[in-house]
Design goal:
- With 802 residues, the protein is an alpha+beta fold.
- It is built from 23 helices and 21 strands.
- It has a 9-stranded mixed β-sheet.
């Protein structure tokens, strides 16, 4: 221990005496460790850390799908929930929820929009977290004559009710239906299911209902394998298909680990970015190794003297590794501080993009990661220089006769290999950034099927107690749209039951097309107002759109999209077709005439293909929840937002809503991809910078080492340009070799990443060539300054020392 402490003190003293070298090495390591730790902290919180629920590894989400390719909402039906709760199955409990947008009336009668979910019996028991306050729901709350009750989220309790400890037993005022259910509990702080929910209330379900309207969850019994669960659910699905032909035929269960469902499409982005930071850390370590090797040349005499005085090779290696460890520890501590700043930046910039971001912290896992990074960095940066210097013997002192000792051939060879490695790593990172940028650009270039520029959107939930019949909803909506349409700059107003790019939960009824002999098909059904297609810029391909002449009292009509016409009306004129729909059966009714065909619209997301859909008129199917689109002729539609808010508030003073540009809404769907792109661009720039600094340092060292050789060449007749191009040519060879190796490495990693990115190919000539050119050009420029400095050396001054 005394010897170790002595080595540490000596290492600190040595590093203190070379502040420029120490600052460069510590800064380089801190950059790599800080970036890697910050991203690992986010990945740890989102992907690795267990969810805050007992035995969270046993939690699953449940969806359904048709195995024959038919369209489906993916949701679960009560009859399926009943079967999944069979005690003979390896499932402890299953539960469902359904979302509702409601308006909470505060003490001053001010409305506040909140998200509520109805939940089935056993929902809270499934997640296993005790309530903060109250005992929660009891069986009586699920009975037909049970009193209405709600459980509020910990966040709502804190923000709206100021953490009132006596909140249990008080009424909660809701605008919808003038309801005042009793608050029977405050949920646990960590319960956030579904994400962002504010209120839970009880739902009484019909056990044999086949209405697929609910999100499903389950907890499997401990020790149940995925294969066992999969085979069990196949048996359940087959039994449902036999017992409920039609809605349950060819339907299968899709089960996903709960943590994967929460993270969603962020997982590939986090993995790619985390891998990029690992490469960046490796590049930083290579850079520091170069610095240590270059500096080691000036310590050859020191190591030779130590060996002459009796120090063993192992003793020298230990001393040099101790110096590397001190250097790495200092860099790791500085990197931890940078990581803390980086996490704070992620909390600020990525609050709406990263799930479970509030759980990002420097816990034991993060500190263990930093410790492993420290050990790995110390070994990577220290081994080559340590063993290189430890080979020095007494003959070094005798051969050089007191003159300065130059680096060995092995040192120069090692430096050249490391330069090639730096160039290859830099090209891989720059190419990775290029692929992520290309993926984001491809996403932005997608045609969503509507025009999102110059438009506003607001989502309204009307109170069912205010309107006695559907006609009143139609009258109120028409009046509001007329008033909004008079606002200066507004050109069209329309509404839809579901807005494009939001989570697609449209109804999926059975549809029968007249004249088509196949069994009923499945399609999306969307309810829109007469002006919706104009308000959203959705193109009419054939026929006409809905007009003011299409009313509740007129013949029912429908409009289909291109996918519907292609798949379900092949070889016929869609405008001569008629369709009828229903679920679980199609009731006998007058078929609706198809009066138009509109372009496909990407409703689920920008990357999801459009599905067969038909539109019905809101006047003929009034709705209490709607998304209202407002088209304007303004360069910035937000100019009209205040006037729109005023008209809606005048129409219903207790309606809670927000008005935002449609462009902002569409951009928010790409926020996670944009975050990944930004991080990759930063890491790519850092990689190029580190490579340039490292290559500059090595070339400068090599130039200084060969200054007497170049002076001799110039004294014998070589020109300055000859010396300059000699150095530049050697650097060019290293750049080309490293570039070829980097392109090959980038292609190999690109094949892995391309499956996670949107329409990106590993062999993309523009990206690979661009990365090659960028790094090689930077490498060449990094050699110009030291090469020019050596070429301008006065040979007489350089040789006078000899």
């Amino acid at each position: 221990m005394n010897t170790l402490l002595q080595d540490i003190r000596f290492a600190i003293r040595m590093l203190w005496h070379v502040p420029a070298f120490t600052l460069a090495a510590v800064s380089t390591l801190a950059l790599g460790v800080g970036a890697t730790t910050a991203i690992f902290s986010a990945a740890n919180a989102a992907l690795l850390r267990p969810l805050p629920y007992p035995n969270s590894q046993d939690l699953r989400t449940v969806r359904t799908m048709f195995t024959d390719g038919n369209v489906t909402s993916g949701r679960v039906a009560p009859v399926e929930l009943t079967r999944l709760n069979d005690r003979s199955l390896p499932i402890e409990r299953a539960a469902v929820s359904a979302k509702f947008d409601v308006t909470l009336l505060l003490a001053d009668n001010k409305p506040r929009a909140v998200i509520a979910h109805g939940v089935s019996d056993g929902f809270f028991e499934l997640f296993g977290l005790p309530h903060t306050l109250g005992r929660g729901f009891v069986p009586e709350h699920y009975q037909a004559n049970g009193s209405p009750a709600v459980i509020i989220s910990h966040r709502l309790w804190r923000e709206v009710f100021s953490s009132d400890p006596a909140i249990v037993g008080k009424p909660l005022r809701l605008a919808q239906g003038n309801l005042s259910p009793t608050i029977v509990g405050v949920a646990a702080r960590d319960l956030d299911v579904p994400q962002g929910n504010d209120i839970w209330f009880t739902m009484r379900l019909e056990p044999n209902s086949v209405a697929h309207s609910f999100d499903g969850y389950m907890r499997v019994r401990p020790g149940t394998s995925d294969e066992q669960l999969r085979s069990t659910l196949e048996v359940v699905a087959q039994a449902l298909g036999r017992d409920y032909p039609g809605p349950e035929t060819n339907r299968a269960f899709i089960v996903t680990p709960f943590v994967d469902a929460m993270v969603g499409d962020l997982k590939p982005t986090l993995i790619i970015v985390l891998a990029a930071t690992g490469l960046l850390l490796l590049l930083a370590c290579v850079n520091v190794t170069n610095l240590l090797l270059a500096r080691g040349a000036s310590r050859v005499r020191e190591m030779a003297a130590r060996a002459a005085l009796g120090a063993s090779r192992g003793r020298l290696v230990r001393q040099l590794l101790t110096e590397s460890a001190v250097l790495a520890a200092t860099g790791a501590i500085a990197g931890l501080a940078l990581a803390f700043v980086g996490v704070r930046a992620l909390l600020t910039y990525g609050a709406s993009k990263l799930p479970r971001l509030e759980a990002v912290s420097f816990d034991t896992s993060v500190f263990l990661f930093v410790l492993l990074t420290l050990v790995a960095s110390a070994l990577v940066v220290g081994i080559a220089p340590a063993f290189q210097l430890a080979r020095t013997g007494l003959e070094t002192l005798l051969n050089e006769s007191g003159r300065s000792v130059r680096g060995s051939r092995n040192t120069h060879r090692t430096l050249r290999v490391l330069i090639i490695g730096e160039i290859a790593l830099a090209i891989t990172l720059v190419a990775g950034a290029g692929w992520v940028v290309k993926s984001f650009a491809n996403l932005q270039a997608i045609d969503p099927g509507f025009n999102y520029r110059g438009r506003l959107v607001t989502h309204l939930t009307l109170s069912f107690s205010r309107f006695r019949n559907p006609g009143e909803v139609t009258t109120w909506t028409r009046t509001l749209f007329e008033n909004v349409g008079r606002i200066e700059g507004v050109t069209a107003v329309g509404s839809s039951s579901m807005f494009p790019t939001r989570a697609d939960t449209d109804a999926t009824p059975l549809v029968h097309v007249e004249g088509v002999t196949t069994p009923p098909v499945v399609s999306r059904r969307r309810v829109v107002s007469a002006g919706f297609f104009n308000a959203m810029g959705i193109r009419m391909r054939q026929g006409r759109g809905f007009t003011d002449d299409d009313r509740a009292t007129s013949a029912p009509v429908a409009i289909v999209n291109e996918s519907f016409a292609r798949r379900y009306m092949p070889g016929m004129d869609p405008l001569k077709g008629q369709l009828s729909f229903g679920f679980p059966t199609i009731p006998p009714q007058t078929p609706r005439a198809v009066v138009g065909v509109v372009s496909d619209v990407r409703y689920a997301s920008l990357t999801a293909d459009s599905e067969p859909a038909f539109y019905v008129l809101a006047d003929q199917s009034p709705m209490l929840q709607m998304s209202v689109a407002i088209a304007t002729s303004l360069a910035d539609p937000r100019v009209a937002a205040d006037a729109v808010r005023a008209e809606i508030s005048k129409a219903d003073p207790v309606l809670a809503f927000e008005v935002e540009p449609v462009e902002t809404l569409v951009a928010s769907t790409l926020s996670r991809q944009k975050l990944g792109m930004t991080l990759m661009l930063v890491f790519g720039a850092m990689a190029v910078t580190l490579a340039a600094i490292g290559i500059y340092g090595v070339i400068a060292y090599a130039s200084a080492e060969r200054s007497r050789e170049f002076a001799t060449r110039m004294a014998l007749g070589a020109s300055s340009s000859n010396v300059f191009w000699l150095l530049a040519g050697q650097a060019r060879v290293l750049a080309v070799v490293g570039g070829v190796l980097g392109v090959a490495t980038a292609y190999a990693t690109g094949r892995l990443a391309s499956s996670w990115l949107y329409e990106v190919r590993a062999f993309d000539p523009m990206i690979l060539a661009g990365a090659f050119v960028i790094v090689v050009v930077v490498t060449v420029f990094a050699t110009v300054i030291p090469a020019r400095r050596v070429s301008r050396t006065d040979p007489a001054n350089a040789l006078r020392a000899d």
